[in-house]
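Postdoc handover notes: sequence design on the structure in folder B. Input tokens:
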């Protein structure tokens, strides 16, 4: 094939592309028509009634059993914390193990087990309640006018 033949073939291919309708425009026109009919069919009212799903009565939902705490090993004590607001908390047991060392947040409940006595620090004592072996354990600020409490929990 000569150089003149290949350039005339390219010119013919260019002419064919310019004279044929653009296939993308045809596809766009068809999708616009489909979108219009879809919009029309969605706007028509539905005459069928759909039954609402049945829900369980509230009394059945509330009666789910609350899991019992696991039994403690000999020499172990359980500390339960309930946070009503932010409170920095540090708790270590008699072995020096850090059981909890972080910010307690609103609504969080934490159960810890370890060996008494426990070294405890609460950054905002008003935002935490404590139970030791399922008994309330009263806490108060270390000094009057302070929000922090540093204490040792020996036994309930």
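Designed sequence:
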């Amino acid at each position: 094939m000569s150089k003149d033949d290949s350039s005339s073939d390219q010119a013919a291919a260019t002419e064919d592309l310019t004279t044929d309708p653009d296939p993308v425009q045809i596809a766009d026109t068809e999708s616009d028509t489909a979108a219009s009919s879809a919009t029309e069919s969605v706007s028509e009212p539905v005459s069928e009634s759909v039954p609402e799903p049945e829900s369980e009565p509230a009394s059945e939902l509330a009666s789910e059993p609350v899991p019992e705490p696991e039994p403690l090993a000999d020499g172990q004590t359980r500390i339960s914390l309930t946070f009503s607001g932010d409170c920095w908390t540090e708790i270590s047991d008699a072995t020096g193990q850090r059981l909890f060392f972080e910010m307690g947040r609103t609504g969080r409940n934490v159960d810890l087990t370890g060996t008494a006595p426990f070294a405890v620090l609460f950054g905002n004592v008003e935002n935490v309640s404590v139970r030791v072996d399922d008994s309330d354990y009263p806490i108060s600020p270390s000094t009057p006018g302070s929000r922090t409490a540093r204490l040792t929990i020996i036994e309930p």
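Context for whoever picks this up: The CA atoms of residues 116 and 155 lie 7 Å apart. Don't rerun without checking with the PI first.
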